[in-house]
Amino acid sequence: MTMASDDQKPARAGFCMSGITDFADGISAIDTHHIRPASDASYLLIREGRAAFVDTGTALAVPHLLAALQEKQLTVESVDWIFLTHIHLDHAGGAGALLKHLPNARVLVHPKGAPHLVDPTKLIQATIGVYGEAFFAATYGKILPIPADRLQVTEEGLSFFWVDRSYQCLHTPGHALHHYVLWDPIARVVFAGDNFGVSYRELDVNGHAFVIPATTPTHFDPSEMHRTIDRIVALQPAAVCLTHYGQVTEINRLAEDLHRGVDAYVAIAGRHGAGPDRVRRMGDELFEWMSAQLDAHGDRADAKTRHAALDLDIDLNVQGLIYWADRVAASKLSGT
Ligand SMILES: [Zn+2]
Questions:
Q1: Measured in angstroms, how far is the CA atom of residue 91 from the centroid of ligand 1?
Q2: Per-residue pLDDT of the chain in tens (336 residues, 90 and over written 9)
Q3: Strand blocks (E) in the chain
Q4: What is the distance in A from the centroid of ligand 1 to the CA of 62?
Q5: Distance 225 CA to ligand 1 centre (A)
Q6: Ligand 1 centre distance from Cα of residue 90 (Å)
Q7: Which one of 14, 57, 80, 219 is at 20 to 30 Å from 325 when CA atoms are compared?
Q8: Cα 326 to averaged position of ligand 1 atoms, centre (Å)
């Protein structure tokens, strides 16, 4: 695994009432209020009066994003970009609705994601397949298509200049085939989407983050996820911005935790991936594994509190592991 010197200290900014958390270098996390507070973030980047969003949350997040612009005394005309790290609808679902308010903004997306933003029908159906119709209706809002002429696709390694500095996009499969990360080499910050795990601030112990991999359906691939984690570490970032949730430091320790987590998930899937009642058994074992990690992390919360924080992720991770296990089994059967 790629290693770099780990001299970063945990640094955390305070959350303010509006759900905006300010970090260094004109970066703010905006709580999109998806599912529960501090669960799903959009990032607002501000450079010399110009603005960009990294991910948007769902369509229901749009009022929060517009309010954040207002709070920062920015106009809707000042937004140049919406960077979508990937097109899962808890991060890209609001882009079409937000774009209607932003006359000058364009959307940067992975080439595999672009067609599904122009016509989101399949994306909506797939998301309903994962979460169920009632949950989707209550938590995602109306997903609007994005006009093709406002989309730009990012090639692997694309560097581009915005306002006062260069940024780079790296294609990073593992969580999703349509995923890229955005790298700001001056701030030394990676916007990692879901590629550097999920880490909720309610599970911090003494300012130290707890992180677990996100193996959401349907593209989870463990070897690609290991590679992507290493690729992020190799950049030697001072901080990584996660969609779930906020900015984390101590990158090398978290990367090691993520590598171990991916291996643990795969072992659990291997034990239960083809058996009857596998969803329940994999879910139970994932919770036990996470609980043991939390104990070692110094967390003292009871099982009920841990279930409240982790159950949705466990459900998604199990579904993603099953997709992966079935894909591996099918490829063995067909000899590919
Ligand atoms: Zn995702």
A1: 7
A2: 333 344 444 334 443 446 999 999 999 999 999 988 999 999 999 999 999 999 999 999 999 999 999 999 999 999 999 999 999 999 999 999 999 999 999 999 999 999 999 999 998 998 888 888 888 888 998 899 999 999 999 999 999 999 999 999 999 999 999 999 999 999 999 999 999 999 999 999 999 999 999 999 899 999 999 999 999 999 999 999 999 999 999 999 999 999 999 999 999 999 987 778 999 999 999 999 999 999 999 999 999 999 999 999 999 999 999 999 999 888 877 765
A3: 20-22, 27-31, 41-47, 50-54, 79-83, 106-109, 151-153, 159-162, 165-171, 180-184, 189-193, 239-242, 246-248
A4: 19
A5: 13
A6: 7
A7: 57
A8: 20
